[in-house]
């Protein structure tokens, strides 16, 4: 459809005016009737009138149309982002209301856009660059290092507040936000003092998230300067903060990475500074630690271990070994502890302490623990079929037991394997026993009610609360190796071990000595009242077939000639 333009309206207006003039002329000249003659005469004023109307309309329309064309063009530029250029003057001359409306529209849009951009680039709590702005600006700075000193390097500082969470949780989020604002101001003060030094270049400061801040110095002279800046930041953040009259100390841990030594891209530097920060946290907090070659090696080894461990679960590379526990009373085997081993494809047999931390931190312990529980249940059932009926204990770590499904899985595994629950013993560490939730405690009570027994492992390494210990549903307490090792040589250690055994008996539990290595220890532990012993002096952990043979032999020996066991020095 054709558009109705101002010009076409002018044409219609001129035609209408001409037509009216024509009819009036015809009316005025035709007294007796309409003749061809007065019709043609009427045409002359009609055409003159129409032409005059057209000419006058055309003049004002031409000015307005030009202004509107200019407005359309200006709006098109605005749509492409140009809000700054002036409004063309012909718009104001011909249609002043339109010019004023456009002016006000552009001013409002500019203000809104500024606000949106500020929100998108700056952290509203501290006014510092937010994560994406910090990244983008830092990448630009890395691409164009300042030419102040020849030996220039960049330095990235990762700053994590040590006790911010406590303040946020106890004093509320408003206080937390105020504290973050104060931290930002102290970082700005450090930045200002560095920028004032000769050759000083102001750093970029950002808040990545929560209580994590970053500072990027585009020009740090030497590694020593980075350490000094780290100390300056630490000192600035170590001073207490005044939060509504309360003095609050939070402190910080800082990781530092230098460009190009520790990375040339922002991603590399971030990773290095982050690792150094975790190292600072792990080394006691309140420190500034540089990234180092050793840290890099540790990170690489850890990444390899994590990858290998993930594959190990799929490739079924785990195995169990079994270490016997014997009764001091009659010298016979009364149980065994299942201990995890990893048949590593390149490194051979790996002991649990070399991979358990990694498994716990990554959560892989849950899958590994499931495998252990399944294998222990299957082993109990298998031994039952060949006439070995003794309890088998299984170790569980805190991360495993935290999962509600753990106990469910354990019972299901016993049920699947048709293994009686009374032959299963759960070993939980002293620390876990002291800290576990009521839910976990309930689940332990239920498992015990179903027939399983419970042992407290590594007793003497944690901080036990005796009244809690009394309330726990436990059957056995295992004296840690550190209590057992000195008993033969140290009278005080002997008395402590004896007192601990007394406490264990008072709690109504059996005392198990673990890590028993020598005949002298065996003799003393027997005298001070231990009920069960486990350790190299009796037998080292062994594979299933060796264990089955050992177990049969030990029973025969115990029954046959008093209580001489296994030929490893046991004397009944
Ligand atoms: P633990 O529960 O205290 O296990 C006893 C550790 O002492 C075992 O080390 C065992 O081989 C070792 N040992 C036994 N007798 C002696 C001795 O006479 N002298 C010395 N020096 N050591 C002895 P292992 O097998 O390397 O296990 C280390 C730890 O790994 C265990 O300490 C346990 O906490 C954990 N662990 C083992 N298997 C598992 C498992 O299946 N799951 C979980 N979550 N942890 C496990
Ligand atoms: Ca254990
Ligand atoms: Ca232990």
What does this protein structure show overall?
This protein has three domains: 6-117, no CATH class; 131-291, Alpha-Beta Plaits (2-Layer Sandwich); 316-549, Alpha-Beta Barrel (TIM Barrel). The strands form three sheets. An eight-stranded mixed beta barrel has the order 8-9-11-12-13-14-15-16, surrounded by five helices. It starts with 5 loop residues before the first helix and ends in a 12-residue tail after the last helix. The longest helix has 44 residues, at 36-79. The protein is built from 21 helices and 16 strands. With 572 residues, it is an alpha/beta fold. Strand 15 (510-513), helix 20 (519-527) and strand 16 form a beta-alpha-beta unit. It binds ligand C2E and calcium ion (2 copies). Residues 323, 339-340, 351-353, 356, 369, 372, 395-397, 457-458, 481, 515-517, 535-536, 541 line the site of ligand C2E. Residues 152-293 form the GGDEF domain. Residues 302-555 form the EAL domain. InterPro entries: Biofilm_reg_signaling, EAL_dom, EAL_sf, GGDEF_dom, Nucleotide_cyclase, Rev_trsase/Diguanyl_cyclase.
